[in-house]
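We emphasize that the prediction below concerns an isolated chain of 340 residues; any contacts that depend on oligomerization or on bound cofactors are therefore not represented. The input was used exactly as deposited, without trimming of termini.
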Amino acid sequence: MKIHFSIAGCLILSSVLLFAPRTLAAQGVPPPPPPDHQDPASKIKMTVGLVVLHATTENHKGVSVSGLEKDNFQVFEDGVAQQIEHFSQADIPVTVGLVVDGSGSMRPKRNDVISAAKAFVQSSNDLNEMFVVNFNERVSFGLPEDMPFTNKITPMQMAIERSPISGKTALYDAISAGLDRLKLGQHDKKVLIVFSDGGDNASSQNNLKQIMTQAVASNAVVYTIGLFDESDMDRNPNVLKQLARATGGEFFQPETIADVIPICAHIARDIRSQYTIAYVPTNRNEDGAFRNVQVRAKSQGQDRLTVRTRTGYYAPGEAANSAPAKKSARSLLDHPGDQR
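Result of the prediction step, given as a token string:
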């Protein structure tokens, strides 16, 4: 196997060894930014089998805590302490997908979702690359075919407006398409933001267990925003909660549709302030099993710190795509985990 000593090579290799995600042909991907845009703090030394975590740390009031050091953190895998090989807190550019529900009941919410997308872009790193997945009973990408990603407000707005508002909700298929598109991005850190007003009543390619497994394997951080109507019989906030918790993201249920705008600005700030923590697992068994991960933080003068990150990963091995792996996905649904 040929190994490239770079952060991109590191994460691609660790994804192949640990997560075995589906592959896509990388067509139309823009070239990487010049070296001066690569923050030295974001560099990760190449190590086979590296597990990379993106972690948000908050105090007892729910306020993000920055400025912590490596020694403030402890990482445990299946209850066993791990040695942190890499640690940083840097505002690095990310690849971000907005997955936007375009089913019929979303019509009165469309303008606020567009305004929220604008708020997210305005609060984000200028070097982010973004895309839009629109869905009702069908799934489509909002940007033109010759523009897989953008960091501009106008194309993102047009990408959301391009989708007709009608039909049912293929939520699982849309999330799967978004996770696949993330793989084509040039940035190592991947984020998905899901706007939906209900459960799934139209997906033909994916079910809940499949997207949970795919999301955990992708190492993407998934934020979910539930835009529910009390009269919507298909609404299922638990799906959005579980998806966010398992990947280290956050679930939001705004009281009013207007609240989605500050929520998106909050998500952008959260992404920019996260810690990156990486370790090589002491358990080297290639059994395809799901490994639980927990991160703890403490700091003098802070009463209680909580850490939000993904709940685990799949070890390498044939079992990762077989029945035992699906059983692990089931356990994620039953006990999604929360490191608060």
